[in-house]
Write a structure and sequence with these properties.
Layout (H helix, E strand, L loop, with lengths): L2 H15 L3 H9 L8 H10 L1 H6 L4 H5 L4 H10 L3 H16 L3 H6 L8 E4 L15 H16 L3 E6 L7 E4 L5 E4 L10 E3 L9 E5 L4 E11 L2 E7 L7 H4 L10 H21 L6 E5 L5 H14 L3 H10 L1 E4 L10 E2 L1 H14 L4 H6 L12 E2 H7 L3 E4 L2 H10 L15 E2 L6 H4 L2 H10 L11 H4 L7 H29 L13 E6 L15 H8 L6 E6 L7 H11 L11 E4 L4 H10 L2 E4 L11 H7 L3 E5 L4 H4 L6 E3 L8 H25 L8 H14 L5 H16 L12
Parallel strand pairs: 1-2, 1-9, 2-8, 9-10, 10-13, 13-14, 15-16, 15-18, 16-17, 18-19, 19-20
Antiparallel strand pairs: 3-4, 5-7, 6-7, 7-8, 11-12
Helix pairs in contact: 2-7, 9-29, 11-12, 12-13, 21-24, 24-25
Pyridoxal-5'-phosphate (PLP) binds next to α9, α24 and α25.
Length: 723
């Protein structure tokens, strides 16, 4: 270190010592950067472990229980001063530097950020504005963009009630509770104009104007803006428009989608943010393109057609849904009521507007499909796994009548997960001992992970078993609390020596949560085998309107009433990021049996990979391109019958066979030291071949190089971009 640097450091240090510990904690708590730094999380927790748990791991809610004096006292008692100072300095440094990857690769994006639109963001359980996979993906995307230094701003909605809290009644029937989040406990500040007044964005419909205020949140280096309609200026029904995620009917939905899309683009203009690229995460946000077209006409004097071309050129659209019914469609009258003011400004007639969302432009009865709008108004469109790409090209081929199915311009970028968020710190510590220094900053390169093969098998196993213990403690605590709430017998004890299989995801019926229950006698035998028993942990929510999904939950949950399954087949209520983290880090096997090819990608199995948990999955979504015969287990052979009953029968049979003939014998076969050597080899194969490929940072580099840079008008300068 040079003299100047030392001097500068000293100056900074003395500056920093003028900031109180309370203020440092407050600043740390107001950038969600903390949520993927285990040492910072542990520092918050160590302030008061019980409070930390009871407040949903929310550092702001926790700090609000202290005064600056009582906090200093606590920090002193628990010897946390150094850790807080260190965390604070690291955050400051993180915010002030631009990563090497960005230096090399951002090119034309430097001054024009990507505007990333999504209806949900799953960043941490304490910020409940997500429901499931789509939101987690958006959260992981922006964290990774922050890590790489990709200039990106995120736009979404603020839901003061979020998605529901799940409890099951005595009959195993799902009950939904909506709790209002105290905004004071969230790391958000309201966006103001220069004169100090609130920034309010108006969104016009034919009958009225909907107003939205804007919240700002920091996720590392990424600014997130969330629109919120709870304002006195709004009609009563509109004040609750953004209260709940996926609540309400299609009228609520179209209004929410106007707020995020149209309101979002208006908001960026108000803030003088000029995006070089629009990225639409799913069709929900596609109205953004129409507002962008209108601005282009107004600002640059473009004709409608010219403006459409210009906006499409810089728009990237990601589709996530392989089922035709899963795409948002709005009836013409609903469209008329909501979009006609914008349509008039665009200088087109209503028929032309509708045509932008129709597969058959002259069919006047056809509703307006948001995915069709997304596809028509973007020059880059992608699915989220290789197989999903094939399915999507087939599904939308009618939009491209002069092309064969393989030429439909929808590619794929396979989803990934944010490694620092989903990797257990205990496992990270183990990798730290074997991988090169600073590997976590390059975790999306293949080379980093090759040292997994040098890790001592005993150490890897021991770390896994530690995580399994922690997970089982968590699950038992939850299950016992659930039982006593229902007035049931609450003592269960799950044995860490038993092969433990996890299954947690939304209870959409295509995910077939009950496939495993098809032959209950056979399952009872598997679970109760005296020498090689198996136990199961299930979790997941059904959409409030999904009766069949709720029946699946009921079937699974009610197994607890059967002697043979009590304490061996458990259901953990209220699946969220916290529950997900525990389960994907601590089970032995992660099971996934959707009806192929309906799982666009799936990401929970990727979280499992990072922690040495083996996947046992239908060859669908990401697993279809990940499985190589040595790095996990497959259910079925990747074929499906036109008759779904037959597909279900075949997959069910395969599931039992692989479980009985491969998984159980491999797991329980120990060497002379009591280690399941073959199993551990598979764990290493899984980590070594998959962890880097299914990292969200790899995913974001793919978006950069194949979508963002071309959309921003640049070319890829460094073909060797993964280095
Ligand atoms: C990762 C995650 C999901 C997505 O999992 P799938 O594999 O897509 O089913 C859903 N919900 C939560 C809480 C998650 O953490």
């Amino acid at each position: 270190m040079s003299f100047q640097e030392v001097k500068k450091n000293e100056e900074e240090l003395s500056l920093d010592s003028q900031i109180s510990l309370y203020d440092k904690c407050w600043e740390l708590a107001h950038n969600l950067w903390w949520s993927w730094h285990p040492d910072v999380i542990n520092t918050f927790r160590d302030l008061d472990p019980q409070l930390w748990r009871s407040l949903d791991h929310n550092p702001i809610a926790m700090l609000r229980q202290f005064t600056p004096e009582s906090l200093e006292q606590r920090v002193y008692e628990r010897v946390l001063t150094c850790r807080i100072n260190y965390a604070y300095r690291r955050l400051k440094q993180y915010l002030s530097e631009r990563p090497a990857w960005a230096e090399k690769n951002i090119g034309v994006l430097g001054s024009k950020p990507v505007a990333y639109f999504s209806l949900e963001f799953g960043i941490h359980e304490s910020v409940p504005i997500y429901s499931g996979g789509l939101g987690i993906l958006a959260g992981d995307h922006i964290k990774s963009a922050s890590g790489l230094g990709v200039p990106l701003v995120a736009v979404g909605l603020f839901y003061d009630q979020g998605y529901f809290k799940q409890q099951l009644d005595v009959d195993g029937w799902q009950q939904e509770q909506y709790l209002k989040t105290d905004i004071e406990n969230l790391p958000m500040t309201q966006v103001k104009r220069e004169d100090g007044s609130s920034l309010i964005v108006p969104i016009e419909t034919e009958k009225e104007t909907i107003y939205a205020r804007v919240w700002h949140m920091m996720v590392g280096r990424v600014n997130v803006y969330l629109l919120d309609c709870d304002l006195p200026e709004n009609k009563k029904e509109d004040r609750t428009l953004t209260s709940r995620l996926y609540g309400g009917d299609s009228r609520t939905r179209i209004r929410q989608e106007m707020v995020v899309g149209i309101g979002g683009v208006k908001l960026l203009k108000e803030l003088d943010i000029r995006p070089g690229v629009y990225h639409l995460n799913e069709g929900h946000c596609a109205f953004a393109t129409l507002q962008a077209v209108q601005y282009k006409m107004e600002e640059d004097g473009f004709s409608f057609d010219e403006a459409v071309r210009a906006v499409a050129y810089k728009t990237c659209f990601t589709t996530h849904t392989p089922v035709p019914a899963g795409h948002d469609r709005f009836a013409p009258d609903l469209m008329y009521e909501h979009l006609s003011p914008l349509q008039r400004k665009l200088g087109i007639d209503f028929h032309q507007l509708m045509a932008m969302g129709r597969e058959h432009v002259n069919d006047d009865r056809e509703p307006f499909c948001m995915t069709v709008l997304g596809l028509k108004l973007s020059r880059h469109a992608n699915a989220v796994s290789c197989l999903h790409g094939v399915v999507s090209r087939r599904m939308w081929s009618s939009l491209y009548p002069n092309r064969s199915e393989t030429e439909v311009p929808i590619g794929h970028i396979t989803n990934g997960v944010h490694v620092p968020t989903w990797l257990a710190w205990q496992m990270q510590n183990l990798y730290d001992r074997y991988f090169k220094p600073g590997w976590i900053d390059e975790h999306w390169t293949q080379e980093v992970w090759q040292n997994i093969y040098n890790v001592d098998p005993g150490e890897l196993w021991e770390t896994h078993i530690t995580l399994k213990h922690l997970m089982l403690d968590f699950v038992q605590r939850r299950v016992q609390a659930q039982a006593s709430r229902r007035g049931e017998e609450d003592r269960i004890s799950m044995n860490p020596d038993v092969l433990t299989i996890g299954f947690a995801r939304r209870f959409a019926t295509y995910k077939r949560a009950t496939l495993l229950l098809k032959d209950i006698e056979r399952l009872a035998k598997i679970v109760n085998d005296p020498h090689r028993p198996v136990q199961f942990i299930f979790a997941g929510k059904a959409h409030p309107a999904d009766q069949p999904g709720k029946e699946f939950i009921q079937q699974v949950a009610n197994l607890r009433k059967d002697e043979r399954f009590h304490g061996k087949f458990v259901f953990v209520e209220d699946y969220d990021m916290n529950v997900a983290r525990h389960i994907v880090q601590g089970v032995d096997v992660w099971m996934n049996n959707p009806r192929r090819p309906l799982e666009a990608s799936g990401t929970s199995g990727q979280k499992a990979v990072l922690n040495g948990v083996l996947n046992f999955s239908v060859l669908d979504g990401w697993w279809a391109e990940a499985y190589d015969g040595t790095n996990g287990f497959s259910i079925g052979t990747g074929t499906s019958h036109v008759d779904t009953t037959i597909t279900d029968q075949r997959d069910g049979a395969s599931l039992y066979e692989v479980l009985e003939n491969e998984i159980i014998p491999t797991y329980y076969k120990e060497d002379a030291h009591g280690l399941p050597t073959n199993w551990i080899r598979m764990m290493k194969n899984s980590i070594g071949t998959l962890a880097w490929r299914f990292s969200a940072q790899r995913m974001v580099t793919d978006y950069m190089l194949t979508a963002y840079l071309p959309a921003a008008g640049g070319v890829t300068c460094d073909m060797n971009y993964r280095q």
